[in-house]
Design brief:
Blueprint: H1 2-51, E1 54-55, E2 63-64, H2 68-75, H3 77-108, H4 113-124, H5 131-142, H6 148-155, H7 171-197, H8 201-209, H9 214-225, H10 227-241, H11 246-251, H12 263-272, H13 277-302
Antiparallel strand pairs: 1-2
Helix pairs in contact: 2-13, 3-7, 3-10, 3-12, 5-7, 7-10, 10-13, 12-13
Transmembrane segments: 21-47, 82-109, 121-143, 181-201, 221-242, 277-298
Family: Belongs to the binding-protein-dependent transport system permease family.
Subcellular location: Cell membrane
């Protein structure tokens, strides 16, 4: 018995030793990534928060200002409007991406493997395009006089539907949101489709034996079980939609006037055009807090219960 216990202890020590070696090797391999994340993300975020409480023009000495910059942001109507425009675009883009992406994943799931691969490539291809390129393409499509959309509407006798898509207040925000949502829908489609094909086949076979239609399968099996995946897709869409810089800059540049100037455009303007780095930093902190709160509310609303099957 004593020999057996000694042998067990030796085996346990060897296992612990090998586990520690693997942990050490894993830590060493992740060290470069940790260094990059620290210098590229963590330190800039901390510096931005510190800078938000100071006045600095990039040349003279930095002076502490307390919450003065935050008060200026809240008192500045243009900054508040920019945040509001970003909220409108982000919500429209997120809703568009989620609806299109989920519908496409449910449709592609029912086709054959070869056709499904072709459809997935076609619908995912816009995601591979930079947002600035997408913005420039849709600038040509939505131009008032020589735009493709207005010309097509004129050719088919629907002149009444022609519009200044990128020059009318309110409408321009909706158009930008729809374009950004369409571009991001491929990511949602791939994530939800991956979640669907990971579900047990037994569930679908049992539902067919019970006489369930595909619509009932979607409602009672697929959507409840892929909620965690939908929650992940929602988080990615929200974080992507709230950036709204490159596509807005490419499509309208924040204009005409400032009717589509979003918070990122306003922050860059304050920092690099007027050298008000402290004010821009405080604006970005406020914007980040708003995004975090909205993201938490949406994630809570969607839910993400995990099921064992």
């Amino acid at each position: 018995m004593a020999e057996k216990s000694t042998a067990v202890k030796k085996v346990g020590r060897k296992a612990m030793s090998s586990t520690r070696k693997l942990q050490l090797i894993g830590g060493l391999f992740s060290l470069p990534a940790l260094v990059i994340v620290t210098f590229a993300t963590i330190i800039p975020v901390i510096w931005n928060v510190v800078l938000s409480f100071c006045n600095w023009d990039g040349v003279s000495a930095m002076t502490f200002n307390g919450i003065g910059n935050f008060m200026k942001v809240f008192a500045d109507k243009s900054s508040m409007k920019a945040i509001g425009y970003s909220l409108v675009i982000a919500l429209i883009a997120t809703a568009t991406a989620m609806v299109i992406g989920i519908c496409l994943s449910l449709l592609i799931y029912k086709v054959t493997k070869v056709e499904g691969a072709i459809y997935r490539f076609v619908f995912y291809s816009p995601v591979m395009l930079p947002l600035s390129v997408v913005g420039l393409l849709f600038t040509l499509v939505l131009a008032t006089d020589e735009g493709l959309l207005n010309n097509i509407l004129g050719l088919i006798g629907l002149e009444s539907l022609q519009n200044a898509w990128l020059a009318k207040k309110g409408l321009v925000l909706t158009v930008i949101g729809l374009v950004q949502g369409w571009r991001s829908s491929g990511t949602v489609m791939m994530l939800v489709f991956t979640g669907i094909i990971g579900l047990p086949v037994d569930l679908f076979e049992s539902s067919k034996l019970d006489g369930a239609t595909y619509r009932q399968e979607v409602r009672h099996i697929i959507l409840p079980l892929v909620k965690p995946t939908i929650q992940l897709a929602l988080s990615m869409c929200v974080m992507s939609a709230f950036k709204t810089y490159d596509i807005v800059f490419a499509m309208t540049g924040g204009g005409p006037g400032d009717i589509s100037k979003t918070a990122p455009l306003k922050i860059i303007e304050q920092a690099f055009m007027f050298n008000k780095y402290g004010l821009a930093a405080s604006n970005s902190v406020i914007y980040a807090i708003i995004v975090i709160v909205i993201l938490a509310i949406l994630r809570k609303g969607v839910g993400g219960d995990k099921y064992e099957y």
